[in-house]
Alanine racemase (Amnibacterium soli), 375 residues
Amino acid sequence: MSALPRAAAAPATVAGPALHVDSTAIAANVRRAAAVSGAAVMAVVKADGFGAGAEAAARAALAAGATWIGTATLDEAVALRRAGIAAPLLCWLLPVDAAWEAALRLRIDVAIASVAHLQAVAEAAGRCGARARVHLHVDTGMARDGAPDRSALITAAADAERLGLVEVVGVMGHLARADEPADASNAAGVVAFRSAVAAVEAAGLRPAVRHLAATEAALRLPDAAFDLVRIGAGLVGIGPGLRPALTLTAPVVLTRVVPAGTPVGYGHTARTERDTVLALLPLGYADGLPRRIEPEAGVQLDGRRCRVLGRVSMDQTVVDAGPEGVRLGTTAVVFGTGAGGEPTAADWARWAGTIEHDVVTGIGARVARVLDGVR
Ligand SMILES: *Cc1c(COP(=O)(O)O)cnc(C)c1O
């Protein structure tokens, strides 16, 4: 006897806070990045796909024509392979004693930025009898994760490739100020990258993919596109001309009628300015709602903008629903595309003095992910 069949995709029955993910928006963003840049697209799904869910974002991007997947850590890449993602997969932030064997076994490409890392992955390759697929990560003006000593790295990589221990598949760089396209550091970064590619080739290496641009550069800096653009934030719609893919909602779980002058929440940092109705949302800073926000921060209730009142707590937030009140169970839109007048992730970023990336990647694990209406 076979086991009872399980519903593969039950309709969403999410009673609590939910992050709704629109895969058609992710797909549209991939196609736009490809069209504008003229390059192949790597979907960067680090930090759980910028909140969207790494696997869901990866699958939506691949279906829309992305040909590579990127992550920051090896664990993120391993999880995607184990989930059945078969596309070329690169990760770029590895400790020197990373689980190199796992990368080799699962055909995960690794970005390498130091001779110590190159030696470590080459040794692992020798032990496994497999060739490691590496991308040389050069510094193109950021002083962050690119190689501090480019020429030593290239020499070591050329030696390791001659020994059959590694295959240099790519060269990568990253730009610090691509969101300011006219800044001189961008042109300088492109020049530095070209010179790095030339140095790699002069060492006898033939990297197939050269990649410098992330979302902002892919959309604004034609000279930075090269073979492949790495699109992370752009997948969920952060970047010029893209479609927001995320909507955060929470139900009203309690309402109360209060007189003007009622102090609200921890520290009594705010008081009602009128007789009004307060609505409680089961969403707090542990779920990624910023704790420090401007007084104008608010959510949408029944098509109206309602301000947050008092401190955001760990698990809950109070909003002023106004004298007309709100029905228990009403769904508040915390942020969305903005098309219906609701706040956007960009609004929350402004209210919190941060950037959208910080807002969307902060959405916690307690918030259900709902993909195209399905939990
Ligand atoms: C996060 C990251 C990306 C993706 O950047 P977005 O601006 O989010 O598209 C690309 N490359 C590197 C090295 C990164 O760390």
